[in-house]
Specification:
- The protein is of the alpha/beta class.
- Helices cover 24% and strands 30% of the residues.
- α2 links the parallel β2 and β3.
Amino acid sequence: HSGLALDIACGYGQNTLYMARHGLTSTGIDLRLEALAAGREAAARANLRASFVQADLTRFSLPRNAFSVVICFKYRDPQLYPTLRAALRPGGLLVYETYTIEHLKFGRKPVNAAHLLGRNELGHAYGDWEIIFYREVWAGRGVASLVARKPFPALESRFLTPASV
């Protein structure tokens, strides 16, 4: 595998490092400096192509069509969805998994409803993409999981019609 990978709200970077181990040039973004430092140390020890960026995701811009893979685990911010859509290159994969509002029934963290997905929220946010895998679980925990491929842009009509002579 090759290409650029992005790990949103990466924490200590275990998923960033996993992608780097599998040949992707990986970047993890998180707000917590101490977690990022641990990820940097682990990447250096293993000689992996992984970098870690401290940033507030609500104020951070990402390059358009740059990443082959974008992953996001245990983080929700619907205002970020358009940014993630734009950051993936056509044909790129989005892997997203986090807690749903149903998780409140189980009395475990997180308990702030603002951090929990609504029912089928990811399906609505990325439903126009090729959905490779989608599920919502409400047994023992409330979690939604999505794997989706960003479509390639439609060919311009001039390529679909014969040239006039």
